[in-house]
Design brief:
Blueprint (H helix, E strand, L loop, with lengths): L1 H11 L8 E10 L4 E11 L2 E7 L22 E11 L1 E6 L9 H10 L2 H17 L2 E6 L8 H11 L6 E3 L5 E2 L20 E2 L3 H13 L4 E5 L1 E6 L5 E5 L3 H13 L3 E6 L2 H10 L3 E4 L5 H10 L2 E3 L2 H12 L4 H19 L21 H8 L4 H7 L2 H7 L18 E4 L13 E6 L2 E4 L3
Parallel strand pairs: 1-4, 5-6, 6-7, 8-9, 10-13, 13-14, 14-15
Antiparallel strand pairs: 1-2, 2-3, 4-16, 11-12, 16-17, 17-18
Length: about 450
């Protein structure tokens, strides 16, 4: 009896295998090679791409399982011949446990008045919205007071307990004492922390180990805050970590094979983060020439998160005009990084804006408006973001070649001619399963 129960429990923890699926694409875009092909067919099996061929090719079962029924059977064919297909999209900067924090009041309301189970339910709903918009992989960069709930969501989505994208989790972001909300409350009250705080190199090294113990994929650090203009018209900020602390964080993270993402807005934070060897720079509203040269030379990715800056600048400028100035600086920084050849990975900071109010795909339009080609914008959310995230147990991300993960998004129209087409998905396949299809 015990053996039967054990076998049953084991079965309940395994994800249901996706049935073989054939997808007919009117146009297939390959951002990796910048090649567009028409009238193509993609065969998915076991959560990966089995084969890509011309749609007129003779029907055949996937090569790895000849005993299975043909993936050309009517029940396993998705006809997208009227649409444009491309790899499932990657948003490399999100916060599933946040539902908009344009003001400190909104942030405090969520951290103080919403239980973690309730926030997890809202996060699951947010993840479903992201999936509906074609984002089949998310890097979640900070749970904002909800501990390691993103690790739990990653597991639930992977096992198919609830529908959701592939998640790379970071647990709570890291900062130092006195430099991150919740702030401003009575000193007599013990308030929740929106981050994991550490002080001193040894304490920060221990904090990284603690994060790794609970299964995070990435370490998120807040390199700076309190942004301001200098007398000569330049930009600066208050660094959160000392150089010794930041060096300890990055060294320990890399020692346990975790990458580090650094929130950094001005050169003050950039210098400390880049010198320590972080793997990505988040936001980067003010990038100077020295920063972009370093990022281009060392292939350190830049996640500009334009959509969230556009979302928060209005409300936050009511109390601090620096946000409108940061918006203007961000445009020049983006152009500077693009010209220098720094890797630009698609990241929106979704959660900083309400998931149901803005479509993450708006980021594409901002990128193109600021000078990026449509092909490079699509690459930012596929091949470039995949390079940043690195190898994944599911397979290769951001592509639709044989062996790549079985993630696909289809849109009506040609995003190479009108990038706003990316905001109107008609079909989404995640892990080989159809989660959205044309009416």
């Amino acid at each position: 009896m015990r053996i039967r129960l054990a076998l049953l429990a084991a079965a309940l923890t395994l994800p249901l295998a996706a049935e073989p699926l054939a997808v007919k694409c009117g146009t297939l875009l390959d951002p990796g090679s910048r090649v567009s092909k028409t009238n193509m067919k993609i065969l998915f099996e076991g959560g990966k791409v089995a084969r890509v061929e011309a749609a007129s090719a003779a029907a055949a079962p996937p090569p790895s399982s000849p005993s299975k029924k043909s993936s050309e059977s009517p029940s396993s064919v998705l006809d997208l011949s009227a649409y444009t297909c491309l790899p499932g999209l990657i948003d490399a900067h999100t916060h599933l446990l946040l539902q908009g924090d344009a003001t400190s009041e909104e942030y405090d309301e969520q951290v103080l008045k919403e239980s973690t189970p309730y926030r997890a339910l809202r996060a699951a709903a947010a993840a479903r919205i992201a999936l509906d918009h074609g984002f089949t992989t998310l890097r979640d960069l900070g749970t904002e007071g909800a501990g390691f709930t993103d690790v739990d969501l990653r597991k639930a989505f992977s096992l198919g307990i609830v529908p959701g994208p592939r998640v790379l989790a970071s647990g709570p972001g890291m900062s130092v004492t006195g430099r991150y909300p919740l702030l401003g409350y009575s000193w007599e009250r013990k308030m929740p922390d929106g981050v994991l705080k550490c002080d001193g190199a040894d304490d920060c090294r221990k904090a990284v180990r603690w994060q790794a113990q609970f299964g995070v994929d990435w370490i998120k650090v807040y390199a700076d805050g309190s942004y301001y203009r200098t007398p000569d018209g330049g930009w600066a900020s208050v660094p959160n970590f000392t150089r010794d602390e930041m060096n300890a964080i990055v060294d320990e993270a890399h020692r346990v094979r975790k990458k580090v993402a650094a929130h950094s807005m001005t050169p003050t934070g950039h210098r400390i983060a880049l010198a320590a060897g972080v793997d990505s720079l988040e936001h980067g509203d003010v990038l100077d020439d020295e920063t972009v040269k370093t990022m281009a030379a060392k292939k350190i990715a830049y996640c500009p998160t334009i959509t969230v800056t556009d979302f928060v600048k209005g409300p936050r400028s009511k109390t601090n005009p620096i946000w409108e100035q940061l918006w203007a600086a961000a445009q020049e920084s983006f152009k500077r990084a693009y010209r220098a050849g720094a890797p630009i990975a698609f990241g929106t900071d979704a959660g900083g804006f309400d998931w149901d109010k803005r479509n993450q795909a708006e980021e594409f339009s901002f990128m193109v408006a600021w000078g990026m080609t449509p092909w490079d914008a699509l690459r930012s959310a596929t091949t470039v973001a995949a390079d940043l995230l690195g190898p994944h147990k599911d397979g290769k991300l951001g592509c639709l070649d044989a062996g790549c993960v079985a993630d696909l998004v289809a849109v009506s129209g040609d995003p190479l001619l009108d990038i706003k087409t990316m905001e109107k998905t008609v079909a989404v396949i995640s892990r080989g399963k159809v989660v959205k299809k044309p009416d």
